[in-house]
Amino acid sequence: MKHHLTGISWQLGRHFLLAAVASVTAQAATPEALKQLPIEAGKVLEVNSFSASAKDAAGRNEVPRTVVKIVLNPGKDSNINVEISLPEPEKWNKRFIGLGNGGSAGRISSGSLVGYTARGYAVATTDMGTAPNSDSGIGKPDVWKDFGYRATHLMTTVSKQVIQACYGQAPEYSYFNGGSTGGQQALQEAQRYPEDYDGIIANVPAHCRTPLHAYFLWNEQIFHHCPFTPEQEANIIAAGNEYMASREMPQTAGKLVSDPRCNEKDIAAVIALARKKDPTLTDKHAAALQKLFEGPKHAITGERIFDGIPFGSSFKIAHGHLYLFQWVFGKDKDLMSLDFGKDIDTYTEKLGPYLNAENADLSAFEKRGGRLIMVSGSADSCVPYHATLDYYERVIQHFGSLEKAASFCKFYVVPGLSHGPGPGINNLPDMLGLVMTWREKGEAPHTLKAKRVVDGKTELDFPLYPYPEKTVWEGGAFKAVNGPRGGVDRVAEKFRPKAAE
Fold first, then answer.
1. CATH code of the domain containing 139
2. Per-residue pLDDT tens over the stretch 370-381
3. Is residue 133 a contact partner of residue 106, using CB atoms and an 8 Å limit?
4. DSSP for 198-247?
5. What angle do CA 17, 150, 344 make, to 5 degrees?
6. What is the pLDDT of residue 9?
7. What is the Cα–Cα distance from 498 to 491, expressed in whole angstroms?
8. Does residue 183 share a domain with residue 58?
9. Each residue of 412-438: pLDDT tens digit?
10. Domain with 373 in it
């Protein structure tokens, strides 16, 4: 789906754009010339140049670059800030990188751009139109659209316009790198605007957005009525690790859960083991744990809204983040009384078509040579793995085979990874570098290496394999075996409505 430009017509805008680009290029793209760029439904706010002789706030030499700040207003209530960092022309490697945001966005991390610029990349990011805070989305569908998909696409198109003006040519390759909310941005780009990027990294992607926040609310209401102490939570996590230990390798058994897929019998067993470990866990706690591990279902129809908290993961990051409900119901709504029947239906109808990135048809992205890597963590309770695993299964189904889907899209579930570094995970491979190599050289990633602490002090190169392969320990060595497919409850289609402009 293409963004339909507002204001002056596309042809007229294109005429002015080409003239402006030619003019700016002729002037060697001085800051003054860049300031005059005509921006569709927006304007250039600032153009600042930094030289190597200047010092940053920490007293270090600045990275030579030009920084362009732009505001975009595609809708009545839209206010999208974009920041673009451009290396010196002789240092530019002919590549553009779009960076994702996090949480409810609303701010730009200028520092995140500098490292990429130092390596020769033109790079940009956006506040997604939610500044100064998440309250900006209350009752404003324009902001919903901007946060869901529009801000990222317009950031991309305006960045390429500035790059053309600055260097006199378009980037040879464009890549997107985002995690969490940035992962939502990543998959929206692959699905809605496949022409924007040649390669995409979607780390711990919050793409199943409205069901994910329903999960947050479900957990929040449970914790509100039945709190758990830190000691109780620690014992519940330990029970999950212990119960699943028989399915682990010796190096990870009892320390983490590599594959948290489970059934009702497993849930009952973990709760029983947790109560054995911790006698302070009451019947009320047990009932709460049952609901936490099962995840939310529709109060009237019983349809699956989202899956539950994975075994072995923290409760602390599995709740909160309730601003999407305020966007729909207002700041004064008592969210502890919000129901999982009609209220969830209203919430889904309002936000789902804009925020969710659930379309498994990546045909246009695949046909133009796009490459996509998705990464989830087995211990991530903030954006649990299961919705992304199921999304990949639907991509496989759409393309007719695992082999076809894996020819352009790979999915890794990293054992022990939370919403960031997890227990024993010291570092992960450079995923952006992997997708670049895949796109530009045709070398597809397969076996990845991560450093893992196995006994509190010894580091081990730990291999990671793309889903559905799993790592096992046989004959004194790590090996890959074919693991099970699926095994998670699918979010009901009702809660994954079709995308809308």
1. 3.40.50.1820
2. 999 999 999 999
3. yes
4. SEEEEES---SHHHHHHHHHHHHHHHHHS---HHHHHHHHHHHHHHGGGG
5. 170
6. 33
7. 14
8. yes
9. 999 888 997 555 454 678 899 999 999
10. 10-207+360-443
